[in-house]
Amino acid sequence: MAKEKLHIIPHDHDISQADREKLNGHKGLLIWFTGLSGSGKSTVANLLERKLYEKGIHTFILDGDNIRSGLNSDLDFSSESRKENIRRIGEVSNLFVNNGTVALSAFISPFRSDRDQVRNIVGSDRYLEIFVDCPLEVCEERDVKGLYKKARAGEISNFTGISSPFEAPENPDVHLRTDKESKEDCVTKIMDVILPKMALK
Ligand SMILES: Nc1ncnc2c1ncn2[C@@H]1O[C@H](COP(=O)(O)OS(=O)(=O)O)[C@@H](OP(=O)(O)O)[C@H]1O
Ligand SMILES: Nc1ncnc2c1ncn2[C@@H]1O[C@H](COP(=O)(O)OP(=O)(O)O)[C@@H](O)[C@H]1O
User: Fold this and answer.
1) Mean pLDDT across the stretch 102-109?
2) What pLDDT was estimated at residue 26?
3) 110: three-class secondary structure by DSSP
4) Confidence grade of residue 1 (pLDDT, cut at 50, 70, 90)
5) Separation of 168 CA from ligand 1 center, angstroms?
6) What residue owns the CA closest to ligand 1's atom 26?
7) Burial of 86 (0-12, 13-18, 19+ CB in 10 A)
């Protein structure tokens, strides 16, 4: 379909991002978790959210449960759909960041170019990439949802790590090894990096 020129003229909002951040007492940030299925993205994001909540920081988790079952329920696991999945999540994450929230987005996001696009949407000063690294064999051993077994049996196609690629981050802000570090240690490592970035000048 040829793209028609749209006449969209954005409104300036009376209350700015800086105003909202001042009200919240901290900056808005996007904490982006990337890693294989079963690597520990949800587990670490949830524990991190609990620790941030206890410090009075405004957070929100975006993950498959609230995105792939709603906003992105029209998308499958083809490379094209994953790209569109991550683009939309980047845009939604950006709204949370503009609201002065610390958004915790936990998606496999296997393609480097898609993660870079999110960094561009949000701005590199507000985007922190967490590589939730865990060997495929360990993720498969955990098989939290029984999907690896199904993928090996050929019941699920395009499965990340088996029949679809995962491009590991080259320069993540935090590199976790969830097969070697406890979830508590993982959260401490992330907090050490993100807390200074949240401070209002
Ligand atoms: N083919 C295939 N490949 C990978 N994962 C699959 C697939 N089919 C279903 N699932 C389940 O969907 C979750 C991944 O969704 P994401 O939106 O994070 O994927 S992506 O970022 O668009 O690649 C993923 O959840 P997590 O285990 O939490 O990562 C899986 O449970
Ligand atoms: N250090 C760790 N960090 C995160 N998860 C861990 C860790 N060690 C073991 N696990 C286990 O690994 C599994 C990770 O599953 P999950 O968080 O759902 O992964 P993902 O969201 O990446 O699919 C959980 O069963 C969790 O208890």
Assistant:
1) 98
2) 98
3) coil
4) low
5) 16
6) 37
7) buried
Q: How far is CA 101 from CA 36, 141, 190, in A?
A: 26, 35, 17
| Catalytic choice (93, 105, 109, 164) | 109
For the full predicted model, state whether its pTM sits above 0.90. yes
Q: How far is Cα 161 from Cα 167, in angstroms, rounded to an integer?
A: 10
Q: Say if 172 falls within a structural domain.
A: yes
| 143 within a domain of the structure (yes/no) | no
| In a domain? residue 59 | yes
Atom 28 (ligand 1) nearest CA: 37
Domain that holds residue 23: 16-134+167-198
Regarding the beta carbon of 180 and ligand 2, being less than 6 Å apart is answered no
Binding-site residue numbers are 35-42
Instruction: Choose the residue to mutate in 66, 144, 185 for probing ligand 2, maximizing ligand atoms within 8 Å of C-beta.
Output: 144
Binding site members for ATP: 35-42
Where residue 29 sits, what CATH number does that domain have?
Answer: 3.40.50.300
- Tell me how many domains the chain contains: 1
Whether residue 150 is contained in a domain is answered as: no
In percent, the amount of the chain with pLDDT more than 90 equals: 92
ipTM of predicted complex: 0.99
Distance of CA 168 to the CA centre of its chain: 14
